[in-house]
Design brief:
Order of helices and strands: HHHH
Helix content: over 70%
Structural class: mainly alpha
Largest sheet: none
Number of strands: 0
Number of domains: 1
């Protein structure tokens, strides 16, 4: 069985989550603040853009590997910032 439908669905969810940062940024403020206590609003929009791009890249087979690397780097950056700001 191919994992492609699951990966595409994940891409749609990640992209939709990214776009929702622009529609309802207040939903992400507390999570973003833990990683970026300064300029939280700007980082909310930056995170939304990153998540949108990663999600769209997951959908397309030609960019999927790039998206996976980006997703790992993004997660590592967020995690490091959360630990650093505790």
């Amino acid at each position: 069985m191919s994992a492609e439908p699951l990966i595409k669905a994940t891409g749609v969810v990640v992209a939709a989550t990214g776009l929702s940062h622009f529609v309802r940024p207040e939903l992400f403020e507390s999570a973003t603040k833990s990683a970026f206590p300064d300029n939280t609003v700007a980082h909310t929009y930056i995170d939304g853009g990153i998540e949108t791009v990663i999600g769209l890249a997951l959908i397309a087979p030609k960019t999927r590997k790039f998206a996976l690397v980006g997703l790992l780097a993004y997660g590592a950056c967020l995690g490091a910032n959360i630990v650093r700001n505790r």
